[in-house]
Amino acid sequence: MPDMLAIISKALFEKEAAGLVPGKVLPTDRYRSQSKHLAPLESGGRLFLVTVRPPDEALWLVAVLDGLSLDDEGWGGRKNQVPITDVTALIPQLRFESGKGIQAAKGALGMSLQTPRTLTAADATLLLGTTAWAPPNITAHQAQSPLPCLCKQCLSKSAEHAEARGVRFTRAHVESGGKRLHYWLPESLTKDAREIAKAVQTAMQGRRSA
C-alpha cells in the first residue's frame, strides 16, 4: 500500500484554501485528478498533497488523505486532519521510491512536481513528523497554540487528551540526549505513532546539533 505525493496548483489552493496558513487545517476530502500515475492508490495507501507558495517557492504540505477510492471526480477519502505545514526544509531529505529526490532548478519547483510520486516509508514518516501538531520546542512556552502548551511549566496542568478544530489529540513524548519532548498526536494517526515518534526524535536531535 504505497503512499504517494501530488501537487495542488497555486490557483486551486488559493481558491479552496483562501486565507489558510501553516497551522490551519484544510478540510478537504478529495483530490480532483484521474492521473494514471495515481493508480497505485487503488491498493490502499495515503495521498500527501503539497503546493508551492510564492515568493520564495516554499513547499507546503496541505493535506493527507486516506481511505481513498476513485470516482468520476478523482480520488475521495476521509476528511483531512493534518495541519498545513511548511516542509521546505525537508526537500533535500525526500528521496521517493525512485531514489532521485527533488531536483528542480530555481523557479521550477512546482513544475518538477507535476507528476505524482511514490513516497518511501521514510519520506512519509519525515513529512508527518514535521507537521504542526508535533511542536518543535523542548521547553519553550507556546502561548499561541490551539492546543494546550506542553512546555515544562505547563505540562503538569495538561490532560492526556485534548481537542482542537474538531480533531481529538492524545499526548505523546520522545526522549533524546537526556531531554524529553511532549507533543500532541491526532488520535486518527495512532496507527503511525511509532514511525511519527521516530521522526520527531530525529528532528529533535537535529535541532540540538544545529
Structure characterization notes:
The chain is of the alpha+beta class and 210 residues long. 18% of the residues lie in helices and 25% in strands. It has helices spanning 10-16, 109-112, 121-129, 193-209, and strands at 4-7, 30-31, 47-53, 58-65, 69-71, 74-76, 85-86, 117-118, 161-164, 167-176, 179-186. The strands form 3 sheets. The protein has a 5-stranded mixed sheet with strand order 7-4-3-1-8, with no helix packed on it. A 3-stranded antiparallel sheet has the order 2-6-5, with no helix packed on it. A hairpin with a 2-residue loop joins strand 5 and strand 6. Helix 3 crosses helix 4. The termini are far apart. 33% of the residues are buried.
Number of helices: 4
Q: How do the strands of the widest beta sheet line up side by side?
A: 7-4-3-1-8
Give the amount of beta strand, in percent. Answer: 25-35%
Q: Tell me, what's the shape? A: globular
Structural class: alpha+beta
Q: Uncertain regions: pLDDT < 50 for 5+ in a row?
A: 132-139
What is the N-to-C order of secondary-structure elements (H for helix, E for strand)? Answer: EHEEEEEEHEHEEEH
What is the number of strand segments?
11
Mean pLDDT: 84
Short characterization:
It contains four helices and eleven strands.
Topology, pairings included?
Elements: E1 4-7, H1 10-16, E2 30-31, E3 47-53, E4 58-65, E5 69-71, E6 74-76, E7 85-86, H2 109-112, E8 117-118, H3 121-129, E9 161-164, E10 167-176, E11 179-186, H4 193-209
Parallel strand pairs: 1-3
Antiparallel strand pairs: 1-8, 2-6, 3-4, 4-7, 5-6, 9-10, 10-11
